[in-house]
Every structure is written in structure tokens, then in C-alpha cells.
Write a structure and sequence with these properties.
Elements lengths: L8 E6 H14 L5 E3 L1 H5 L12 H5 L6 E2 L3 E2 L5 E16 L20 E12 L3 H7 L22 E3 L5 E18 L2 E13 L5 H19 L5 E2 L21 E5 L11 E3 L2 E10 L1
Parallel strand pairs: 2-3, 5-7
Antiparallel strand pairs: 1-13, 2-5, 4-5, 5-6, 6-8, 8-9, 9-10, 11-13, 12-13
């Protein structure tokens, strides 16, 4: 059976290609994967992992780190330096031979699903004890109206200097899939998450809290950033053929409806993400 027997355009993406693209993006746009305070960004030796950036990043004066505000210390105008780095990101499509899911995600990888392995390193910088001793505030005069209140919200946070970060690294796993969703009237290939698990964090409450926060980060930030506009998924067949296809193009692309002949669209199988597309010339 030909790939296009049930559609006008068939597009497939192999997991090796996905992972290669992710690797290139991580080296050429490192600021998407590395977040830290300005003090840490200005002193890269403080980072928990050295950033492997492509030489073009320095040639174009592009940042390696996205600057974040210090973590505030409630009741003061001080904050602590920190860094969060996504050091590994790997995708494995069904049948799932490259990523071993932890028991909490009920391996093996289910049909029409994908696994994502995330390597994350982070750290917080604590200042020297001598500095802290000088910063301890004196007792407040009883009865003052400002007693016990936080500084005004417009007060800038001052990052306490540090000589090093207390670093940690962990592995997390995502179990999910890909669906077609409509946004702004256009169809997108959209990844979604069924489960999220961090490996071997104690105590359990700390693990659950981290999984909650990082799971929110995955659902609300990382996965939405991996959406692909359906009309950009296949090669742009109209490029360079302006005599046949006016610009903007008059070709409309849509997903082939699921049926007995196309039971899954998109389909995650054979280490690939497959998409069956219908095209219409207006």
C-alpha cells in the first residue's frame, strides 16, 4: 500500500531526526535551556553544568543564559542566586526501545505513545556566614507600623553574593502522545502528557512537590513550545513555484479524519510520528 493511498500528503518524522534537531537547538539556542540570575550568568563557572554552545552563539553575541530574578527571601529585599539547566532532552516513539520508563509510569511504553527523558540540573547559592552575620537586622522598635511587614513591592531584590551553587541533578520521565488540536482556526500537532515521574527523590513529599511543579512547567511551557503548525509539518511544496501557487499560497491543509483505513492520525509507531494530510486548492 502506498503511503498516500488514504491521503494527499504523508509526512513522517523519525525519532532520530527529532533528537538530532533537539541537540542542534540546544547548542545553537542555549538560552532556551539555561536559566540563571545575572550574577551566575556573568560568572559561568558558577553554573552546575558547562554549557556546550555552538561557536555561532559567541560570534553573534547571543546569550547563553536567560536571566531570571533572584529567589526572594520573604520579609527582606534580598534574594539568592540560582540556576536551572536542562542538560538532556530525548524523545522515544513507540515501541520505545531507547528510554526505560520507571515503574511508576507502568512500562513498557503503550501503543500510540511516546516517552521523553529529561535531564535537569539546578543549584542555589548561599552567601558566606560572615556576610550573613553583617546583614542580620537589629530588633525593631515595638509599635512601629512597619513592624513585621514585607518591603514595598517596588523595592528591587538584591541578590546576595555567593562563591558557589549547591548543585543537584535529577532525571525525569514523561509519558504522553501527540494529538491534532485547533488553535486560532488552524490545526496543530500538539504533544500532551499522561504522566510525569522524577527518579529517586527523598523524602516522598519533596518528590511529589517537585513533580507537581516540574509537571506544571512541562504542561504549560515545554510541551506547548513543541507544537507544530500542520501546514508547516510537510515540506513546503509550493515554495519556488509562484507561477502555479500564488503567494500567499492557495493550498489549505487539514488532517485526514480517523477511519478504518486511517485508525490513528497522528500515529506513533515504528519509531516514527506519522501524519496523514488532506490538501485542498482554493
Amino acid at each position: 500500500m502506498a503511503f498516500t493511498d488514504n491521503c494527499d500528503i504523508f509526512a513522517s518524522f523519525h525519532e532520530e531526526g527529532f533528537n538530532r534537531i533537539l541537540g542542534h537547538v540546544r547548542r545553537q539556542r542555549p538560552s532556551l535551556f539555561n536559566h540563571a540570575t545575572a550574577d551566575v550568568a556573568n560568572h559561568p563557572r558558577l553554573l552546575c553544568k558547562e554549557i556546550d554552545a555552538h561557536p555561532i552563539v559567541a560570534l553573534r553575541n547571543n546569550p547563553k543564559v536567560t536571566i531570571a530574578d533572584p529567589l526572594p527571601i520573604p520579609g527582606t529585599n534580598f534574594g539568592v542566586n540560582f540556576a536551572v539547566q536542562l542538560v538532556d532532552l530525548q524523545i522515544d516513539f513507540h515501541p520505545g526501545k531507547d528510554i526505560a520508563l520507571p515503574p511508576e509510569l507502568n512500562p513498557p511504553l503503550q501503543a500510540q505513545r511516546l516517552a521523553i527523558k529529561v535531564g535537569l540540573c539546578g543549584g542555589i547559592g548561599c552567601p558566606d556566614k560572615e556576610l550573613l552575620d553583617r546583614l542580620v537586622p537589629p530588633p525593631k522598635v515595638p509599635g512601629r507600623p512597619t513592624e513585621g511587614k514585607d518591603p514595598p513591592r517596588d523595592t528591587p531584590i538584591v541578590a546576595l553574593p555567593t562563591r558557589q551553587l549547591h548543585c543537584f541533578c535529577l532525571e525525569a520521565y514523561v509519558h504522553g502522545g501527540v494529538r491534532i488540536a485547533t488553535h486560532h482556526g488552524k490545526p496543530y500537532l500538539e504533544p500532551f502528557m499522561d504522566g510525569f515521574e522524577i527518579v529517586d527523590i527523598e523524602p516522598k513529599g519533596l518528590e511529589n512537590s517537585l513533580e507537581c511543579y516540574l509537571g506544571l512547567l512541562m504542561r504549560l511551557v515545554v510541551l506547548p513550545g513543541l507544537r507544530i503548525l500542520l501546514e508547516h509539518a510537510p515540506l513546503n511544496l509550493t515554495q519556488g513555484a509562484t507561477d502555479l501557487f500564488p503567494q500567499p499560497t492557495n493550498v489549505t491543509l487539514s488532517a485526514v479524519p480517523v477511519s478504518a483505513s486511517v485508525p490513528n492520525n497522528p500515529a506513533i509507531e515504528d519509531d516514527q510520528l506519522k501524519v496523514f494530510i488532506h490538501s485542498e486548492v482554493n
